[in-house]
Each structure stands twice: as structure tokens, then as C-alpha cells.
Amino acid sequence: MAASDEQLMLAYAGGDARAFESLYAKHKGALYRFVLRSVGARGEAEELYQDVWLRVIEARSRYTPSARFTTWLYTIAHNRLVDHWRTRGLVLVSLDAEDAAPPEPAAPPSSQPQLQLEARQMLERLATAIAALPLVQREAFLLQQEAGMSVAEIARATGVDEEAAKSRLRYAVAKLTEAIGDE
Predict the structure, then answer these.
(1) Does domain 5-180 have CATH number 1.10.1740.10?
(2) What is the pTM assigned to this prediction?
(3) Nearest of 152, 163, 168, 165 to residue 70 by alpha carbon
(4) DSSP string spanning 16-52?
């Protein structure tokens, strides 16, 4: 049976470097997408992403499995993003800077040019709509979609109560639905 993330983190805290490699390999994609979609600029996202993993490394001796590892990891990411936004004078209820480009959408699996064009346009509308969400709503939405977190885990990671997390998620989904239509 494979070790849980929590067991891997405890093993890493005990000196097992392979345990960290396993955790990194498992969570790198979703965590990077979360950070990238939160800030919108690749250069900033890469720096913040590395900072999050550095903080995981630095905190390994203090890690206690009081919640899922992903909740702990995304709490670190949330706190790093809050620090990032504060240094830029942004507040959590503001919109992102207008010049922050949404991530490039992935190519659709279809080989038909018209369907590819429609799928790309839909992904661009979705990426633009996600980028336009207020930061707290975007964060809740991305934690659910990228990290697979529950409302309770989102609340814990962001330091709010479950009702606030649920509300942020509900408003994000409503705004995204409105922005992209019934497609």
C-alpha cells in the first residue's frame, strides 16, 4: 500500500529525501497551476511556487499531520500569495491587475479545426473570467478545482469559516457561469 501524503511528509521530516521527491512529484502540477492562475504572470508564479516549496522544506521539522497534507501545503501557498499581494498594495477583495495575462489554454483533443477554434475560444473566455474574479473568490475556486479541496479544507487553508469559503466559491461559480454562458 502506498504511503499517504502525511506519512511521506513525516518521513521527509525524519530525513527521507525520497519522500519529499514523491510529494513534490505528486503536487507540483496542481500547486503551480494554482499559483499561476492566482497571480497571472509566469515569472511571478515561478518565484512564488519555488518560495512555497522552500517554506515546505523549512517547515518540515515542525510538520504535524493535524489536517490533510494538501490543506497544509495550500495554506502555505495562500499565506505566500497574501504576502505577495500585500507587497504590491493589493487587497484580497480587489481585482487583479489588468495587465496580468491569463494562462495559455491547453490545445483541445479534437483534430477538427472549427472545433479546435471553438474550444480554444471557450478556454480563453474561462481563463479571462477566472482572472477577473476577485482574489478571494478566485482562490476558493482554484483551491477546489486545482487542489481538489473541500469547502472545509478551503476554509482552513485560507483562515476563514466554512460559510465564508462556501460563499466565495458560490459567487465564483456564479460569475464564471455568467461569463461563459451555457457552453
Answers:
(1) yes
(2) 0.63
(3) 152
(4) -HHHHHHHHHHHHHHHHHHHHHHH--HHHHHHHHHHH
Grid cell in block for residue 154: 478551503
Q: Give the DSSP H or E segment for 58.
A: helix 42-59
Q: Which residue has the cell 465564508?
A: 164
For the chain, give the number of residues: 183
Collapsed DSSP state (helix, strand, coil) of residue 68: coil
Grid cell, residue 129, equals 473570467
Q: What are the extents of the domains in the chain?
A: 5-180
What distance in Å separates the CA atoms of residue 25 and residue 57, rounded to the nearest whole number?
A: 14
Per DSSP, 108 falls in state P
Helices (H) and strands (E) in the chain, counts: 8, 0
Report residue 155 as a C-alpha cell.
Answer: 476554509
Rg (Cα) of the chain, in Å, rounded?
17
Instruction: Read off the C-alpha cell for 37.
Output: 492562475
The pLDDT tens digits of the residues spanning 39-66 come to 888 898 999 999 999 999 999 999 988 8
Closest CA to 39 of 69, 78, 72: 78
Give the closest residue to 82 by CA, choosing from 41, 117, 39.
39
Q: What DSSP state is assigned to residue 92?
A: T
